[in-house]
């Protein structure tokens, strides 16, 4: 049984790492909030209880807190944020991520 969803939110990134395996970092193509909602609802209906928000870099999305809040509202047990960690140097930003529902980080 599939228990987790890796959900790429888009390819934009605030780094330019030479070792990055994502060849589309300059690609402005991001999923819309509606596409993300649809993916999350489908995952939940399939019994998936873990979601990993990934990218690109999810923390540079203007709607990241809304996305996280939706994950929490849908009662995913684990809400992981995969990030390059740059925005985690800001305590207020980290606090807001946690209050929104992130309970696991992967850097």
Describe this structure in a few short sentences.
This protein is an alpha/beta fold and 107 residues long. Helices cover 31% and strands 17% of the residues.
Strands side by side in the biggest sheet: 1-2-3-4
Question: Strand fraction band?
Answer: 15-25%
Largest sheet: 4 strands, parallel
Helix content: 25-40%
Order of helices and strands: EHEHEHE
Helix/strand class: alpha/beta
Detailed description of the structure:
By secondary structure, this protein is α/β, with parallel strands linked by helices. The protein has a single domain, classed as Rossmann fold (3-Layer(aba) Sandwich), CATH 3.40.50. Helices cover 31% and strands 17% of the residues. The protein is built from three helices and four strands. A four-stranded parallel sheet has the order 1-2-3-4, with helices on one face. The two termini are 26 Å apart. The model has no long low-confidence stretch (mean pLDDT 91).
Task: Looking at this protein, list some descriptive labels.
single chain; 17% strand; alpha/beta; Rossmann fold; 107 residues; globular; 3 helices
Write the layout of secondary structure elements.
Elements: E1 4-8, H1 33-45, E2 50-54, H2 64-73, E3 78-82, H3 91-100, E4 104-106
Parallel strand pairs: 1-2, 2-3, 3-4
């Amino acid at each position: 049984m599939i228990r987790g969803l890796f959900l790429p939110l888009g390819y934009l990134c605030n780094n330019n790492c030479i070792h990055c395996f994502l060849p589309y970092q300059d690609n402005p193509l991001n999923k819309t909030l509606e596409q993300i909602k649809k993916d999350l609802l489908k995952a939940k209906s399939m019994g998936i209880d873990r979601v990993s928000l990934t990218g690109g870099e999810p923390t540079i999305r203007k709607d990241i807190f809304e996305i996280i809040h939706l994950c929490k509202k849908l009662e995913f047990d684990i809400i992981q944020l995969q990030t390059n960690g740059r925005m985690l140097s800001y305590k207020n930003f980290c606090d807001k991520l946690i209050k929104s529902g992130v309970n696991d980080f992967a850097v």
